[in-house]
Every structure is written in structure tokens, then in C-alpha cells.
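[09:14] KT: can someone run the structure on this one? pasting the chain below
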Amino acid sequence: QVQLVESGGGLVQAGGSLRLSCSASGRAFSPYGTGWFRQAPGKEREFVAAIRWSDDIRYADSVQGRFIISRDNTKNTLDLQMNSLKPDDTAVYYCASSSRLKVPYRPSDLSQYDYWGQGTQVTVSS
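[09:31] RB: done, C-alpha cells below
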């Protein structure tokens, strides 16, 4: 059974930083696509960042230049370093993983991912 568990959420002031981590059990992340999504109250779940291979990393425009996604294939962990946080970044953050290589690869598409974590709350105060 595959389980994804996020950690690292919390309350931070605008301009601050947080680091989210997702650990997987039951299946290796590599070489499949993995990503972070977020969902704010009353809004749909949206793409934040994705990584498939070390040279295939994508970001949403809203977080480009502020967030960094990384993956440690030996530890089977997926991290999201979030810098210069804004109140608009407030949401529940979810990590996600694919069960196989998807063709075509659409990292921002929720349907590309087969496994999801339970989410971790990030709150950015102004």
C-alpha cells in the first residue's frame, strides 16, 4: 500500500520561509512524476510544482522564483522550499505521485497523479 505523508506546514509571517517534506512508503518516487499542489478555502486544487527527473522541473507562474522543489531518490522524499511567502500562498498543500510514466507528461494536471498525501496546512499572515 502506497502512503504519502506531508510535514512541515505551519504559520508564518509574510516574507518568511517554510520547508515542506513528503515521505513515501510502499513505492519509490523515482522515476515517476511527483508534484506539489495546494487548495485554498473555496478554491479548486491547483498546481504548484513538479519534478520528474533532475532536469525536468516545472513551477506555477505564481511561485516561480520563490519556491524550489527537490527530490531525494535514496530517501524517497519530496521537498518544497517556500521563500518570500505571501498571504495568497495560504492553503493546504498536498504532495502527489504517479504510479507509472505518463505520456504525454502534463505535470500540472491532477489526473496525472495516482497517489496523494493527506495535506499539510500553510498559513501566511500579513
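[09:33] KT: thanks! The mean pLDDT is 95.
[09:34] RB: yep, looked fine to me
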